[in-house]
Amino acid sequence: MSKKKILITGGAGFIGSHVVRRFVTQYPGYDIYNLDALTYAGNLANLKDIEHHSNYHFIKGDITDAKFINELFHDYSFDAVIHLAAESHVDRSISNPLDFIMTNIVGTVNLLNAARDIWKNKLTSSSSGRTEEGLFYHISTDEVYGSLGETGLFTETTAYDPRSPYSASKASSDHLVFAYHHTYHLPVVLSNCSNNYGSHHFPEKLIPLAINNIKNNKPVPVYGKGENVRDWLYVEDHARAIDLIFHKGKTGEKYNVGGNNEWKNIDLIQLLCRIMDKKLKRPEGNSAKLITFVTDRPGHDLRYAIDSSKLQRELGWKPSLQFEEGLEKTVDWYLANEEWLAQVTSGEYKNYYRQQYQTL
Ligand code: NAD
Ligand code: DAU
User: Is residue 205 part of a domain?
Assistant: First the structure.
């Protein structure tokens, strides 16, 4: 029997690389195709450890290019898609919304159209969405639900209320994914996850930025008063949730994924400073002196918090790590992988593709 062909988009990014690694190593019966445009956020060095596995294949390409995407789907006849490729940084969406509209909305529609086209003979109202019939799994964010006050949690039925260009583009893509399910019977499943942290996280996001700055004795920028709350989940726990939902999730449904782990930004940064002091053998309180309050993000959502009880109840998932343990592991990874960090911050990482994948 031929191997299932699974397309994973955005596999050279932070979460995508963890998902690709998990699928390549756990499922030798699948051929994993990583489609990534290698934007500033894509780094093939994230997958160095698995790039020579025989069931791993890299395809450089842009999901906003409809012709390319259609040809690709016809050439490979993928059995399933796990779609992570996106512009993902809220601050960049505030300065340049159009990139987010193009990749997150137009790019998603291009993939939906191509999937619909190659699976058209299998689409019926009773599609179960298992890989023999095609499955389009869309990875989304808790930011589509908007901002919470002091209390309450986002559930799968919370009304969408996106408030940044990033979250509005992700909300649009979520709606389109379900629209293709209802209109064309495309077998889809969707998940909305809270803030991830862990290895290979691009150092523009709060945790890796702070680790890098503390290490280099640079100011650690905290927006506003640092009172905004995020619900943090270790990235490998997210990858495990994606694996479960891909294999056991119900078609046409969505699942919230979260760490049940809320932190005010300032408290998180204080904890990180204490861990960094310990790891760098600096006197206690040294790193915290780098904390610098800066102008707030425009429209900064106050609080996100996820109710993941559906995923826990129906598929038996739960987060595996306590936050302090996960944060220490993350710090250890960044301190042990200085070359990765140096190459990312210098821009040198862009050469990895040329060195590994192109015959010059
Ligand atoms: P990331 O920015 O680290 O990676 C995105 C990847 O997509 C990169 O490899 C990039 O090269 C690729 N990409 C971007 N535009 C592309 C295009 N036009 N064509 C092909 N590839 C393209 O993102 P991430 O943090 O790993 O997030 C992955 C997904 O998970 C996104 O859909 C994001 O919305 C979602 N998500 C992220 C978080 C989080 O905390 N990081 C939480 C919940 C959901
Ligand atoms: O909730 C899921 C989302 O989490 C994902 O969908 C996004 O792709 C991901 O980037 C993340 O969004 P956030 O905006 O929450 O993450 P970020 O790391 O940018 O910021 C986390 C919090 O820290 C947020 O309240 C803003 C604040 N912050 C961020 C940066 C970069 C600072 O105070 N200082 C900073 O320098």
Answer: no
